[in-house]
């Protein structure tokens, strides 16, 4: 037997009112067992789009996002100074270089515990360079010479792409890779012209933290 139209309409309105009430509770909190309000969950701390590995060591020049749960006034984004330290609200000149983000977060929590009850801190590396020993340095005839952070399974081709490629004056097949092994410097020739311009992937080389790539100028 079909339901009268008016009854269906009343049922639909009741469902709409119920849905609105649930939405309001989610936004403003719901009643607790004693009749008080229970706060809605806080938003999760921001996540970095590109994050180094968990054992990454912070280096000078890195940019750190320090997130203190429930304390927006204490959450900041700061650079690591050349002296290896950072300063955040209530935390003055704390050593950052050589620590993992988790280690630095725990150290900041210890300082903040004098002012905030049970602080919870997340440290996210947004712009990372790394410590001196975890960098790859590319010198000579490349578009952007300088130091770049080492990444897991990084190769010679990755490094050349990172610095913008070779210049038109580069003698790529005379480039050298300098590596420290057991405290002694070792050098090998790498053929960047063959790798970059001719697609000879067999000339690609796995890199290690601390490697230096030197690209000389062509002799005319």
Major β-sheet profile:
5 strands, mixed
Which percent range fits the helix content?
A: 10-25%
- Please identify the top-level CATH class of one domain: Alpha Beta
Oligomeric state: single chain
Task: Give me the secondary-structure category.
Answer: alpha+beta
Q: Give the mean pLDDT.
A: 79
Tell me the β content.
25-35%
Q: Architecture of one domain in CATH?
A: Roll
As laid out across the biggest beta sheet, the strand order is: 9-8-12-10-11
Order of helices and strands: HEEEEEEHEEEHEEHE
Amino- and carboxy-terminal Cα gap: 97 Å
Task: Count the E strands.
Answer: 12
Instruction: Give me the CATH fold name of one domain.
Output: Outer membrane lipoprotein wza fold like
Number of helices: 4
Report the radius of gyration as a whole number of Å: 28 Å
Low-confidence stretches: 19-49
List the helices and strands and how they pair.
Elements: H1 5-28, E1 30-31, E2 37-38, E3 63-68, E4 76-79, E5 85-88, E6 91-95, H2 101-112, E7 121-127, E8 135-140, E9 146-149, H3 156-162, E10 175-181, E11 184-190, H4 192-197, E12 212-215
Description:
This protein has 220 residues and is an alpha+beta fold. Among the domains are: 63-127, wza like fold, CATH 3.30.1950.10; 132-215, Outer membrane lipoprotein wza fold like, CATH 3.10.560.10. Helix content is 22%, strand content 26%. The protein has 4 helices and 12 strands, in the order αββββββαβββαββαβ. It has helices at 5-28, 101-112, 156-162, 192-197, and strands at 30-31, 37-38, 63-68, 76-79, 85-88, 91-95, 121-127, 135-140, 146-149, 175-181, 184-190, 212-215. The strands form 4 sheets. The protein has a 5-stranded mixed beta sheet, with helices on one face. A hairpin with a 5-residue loop joins β8 (135-140) and β9. The model is unreliable at 19-49 (pLDDT under 50).
């Amino acid at each position: 037997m079909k339901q009268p139209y008016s009854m269906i309409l009343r049922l639909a309105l009741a469902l709409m009112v119920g849905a609105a009430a649930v939405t309001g509770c989610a936004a403003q909190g719901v009643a607790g067992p004693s009749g008080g309000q229970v706060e809605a969950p806080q938003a999760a701390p921001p996540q970095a789009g590109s994050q180094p590995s968990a054992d990454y060591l912070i280096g000078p020049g890195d940019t750190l996002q320090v997130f203190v749960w429930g304390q927006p006034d204490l959450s900041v984004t700061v650079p690591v100074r050349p002296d290896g330290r950072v300063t955040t609200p209530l935390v003055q000149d704390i050593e950052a270089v050589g620590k993992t983000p988790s280690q630095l977060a725990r150290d900041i929590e210890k300082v903040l515990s004098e002012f905030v009850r049970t602080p919870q801190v997340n440290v996210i590396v947004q712009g990372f360079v790394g410590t001196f020993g975890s960098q790859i340095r590319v010198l000579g005839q490349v578009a952007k010479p300088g130091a770049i952070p080492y990444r897991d399974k990084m190769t010679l081709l990755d490094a050349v792409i990172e610095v913008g490629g070779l210049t038109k004056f580069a003698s790529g097949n005379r480039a050298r890779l300098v590596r420290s092994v057991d405290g002694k410097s070792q050098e090998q020739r790498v053929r960047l012209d063959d790798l970059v311009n001719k697609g000879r992937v067999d000339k690609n080389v796995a890199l290690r933290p601390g490697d230096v790539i030197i690209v000389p100028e062509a002799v005319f």
